[in-house]
Amino acid sequence: MDAIGEKEIRSSFVNCSKGEASRVKMPAGLTDGGVAWDDLDFLAWTDPGAPLRALLVVPGERGLTGLVLRRPEARRASAMRSSMCQVCLTDHAGSGVALFVAPLAGAAGRNGNTVGQYLCADLACSLYLRGKRQPKLRLIRREETLSLRERIDRALTNLAAFTDRVVAG
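RESULT FIELD:
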């Protein structure tokens, strides 16, 4: 992913007000070069000022699309349960996958309509794709024959489908 700045990030949000976008705390390392852009396919983080709010900024054909997401409250999950991220298709045990919910853009979102997506709970899909992070515990081991580029393209396609549903309202 190409490096992006705070102004670009704030103006990319499609499912919140400009006021809400202006109050979002930016990810750690954004201003001091601490973000490893070469390892990212999209930018995702939890707002440190609001731990149940996650932010997602995805590059695409229309430019950047930013989404405000609600993450579930932390709860203890069974380590024997296995779940798969719907974006990067990484298998996780326990609470490694969480349902993130996004208000729809426009009037539908203001009326309380939402759409959800199961994502890696730590929002590190890009690192799992590259093998730079491993799930804490895997109950299922799957080997893929796709190249890294093909896995990244698949993840971005999956993410684009989610962002398109939010934008369409």
